[in-house]
Specification:
CATH topology of chain A: Nuclear Transport Factor 2, Chain: A
Strand content of chain A: 35-45%
Shape of chain A: elongated
Largest interface: A-B, 32 and 32 residues
Order of helices and strands of chain A: HHEEHEEEE
Largest sheet of chain A: 6 strands, mixed
Distance between the termini of chain A: 73 Å
Oligomer: homodimer
Number of strands of chain A: 6
CATH architecture of chain A: Roll
CATH class of chain A: Alpha Beta
Helix content of chain A: 40-55%
């Protein structure tokens, strides 16, 4: 009986460790796919599809603006940015730390926007995005970024 | 024997749930104390004490500047900001999500800096700070913030 219990515990511990690695790999894969979807939806001008990548209770923390709370307001925010002609060149994850039901992603972005005098300006910066597992998917609950460029 | 095993499992599950709540409460208490220490050390001009609140491999993502990597570089960064006369009025947590060995804190800050024409300017903004458990303490591994004020 003792051997069976001990065996069961050992199997359970290894299964749990393996699950942890699986969960981590699957989180990285899912968040990477969602990031790609984010860029595609943004550049198509589909603010609703961008907003659908966020949890309903997400918080967006944009530079030089107040915090935006909830998916509906996040859709309005990105709708405005898209409407002003912004495009995403890239979102690139530097690392993703999976911890429990959350994944903390650090990355960099490149974006463009119409310049006031005509033409296009490019911005480069960095972000922290926090994902939360929701069933089989991962949704953004926190999104904050800022520019690398000196203040003008 | 079955009853003993079942009893042990039930005790283990409840102990684990209670531990989860304890861990969450203790994380909130520890991060709150560290936040207070951050403000005190900053306003005393002690960049080394500020940097000691970060993990050795932490990443700092300041607005309008490149990413700063590692505790030593973070100390240099904050030393420069302190040397320029900045003061922290407050750091206030809005919420702290504890997940595994990480705690994701969202909050707001108020800071002051000498104005170019004399006097003082006040800045208000928001931040996401990610803490990681290190033994009995919690250290910052990611720190990103931005201003609520329109770009000038």
């Amino acid at each position: 009986m003792r051997k069976i219990i001990l065996g069961t515990i050992i199997v359970a511990v290894f299964a749990s460790l393996a699950n942890g690695q699986d969960a981590s790999a699957s989180a990285r894969k899912a968040t990477e796919a969602n990031l790609k979807e984010f860029v595609d939806a943004f550049n198509k001008g589909d603010a609703a599809a961008v907003a659908a990548i966020y949890a309903t209770d997400a918080r967006l923390l944009p530079p030089n603006a107040a915090m935006v709370e909830g998916r509906a307001n996040i859709q309005t925010f990105w709708g405005g940015v898209i409407g002003a002609g912004a495009k995403l060149v890239s979102l690139t994850a530097i690392d993703v730390n999976v911890s429990g039901n959350h994944a903390i992603e650090t990355g960099k972005y490149v974006s463009t926007a119409p310049a006031t005098g005509g033409g296009t300006t490019t911005d480069e910066g960095k972000y922290v995005v926090v994902w939360r597992r929701e069933g089989r998917d991962w949704k953004i609950i926190r999104d904050i970024w800022n520019s690398n460029k000196p203040q003008q």
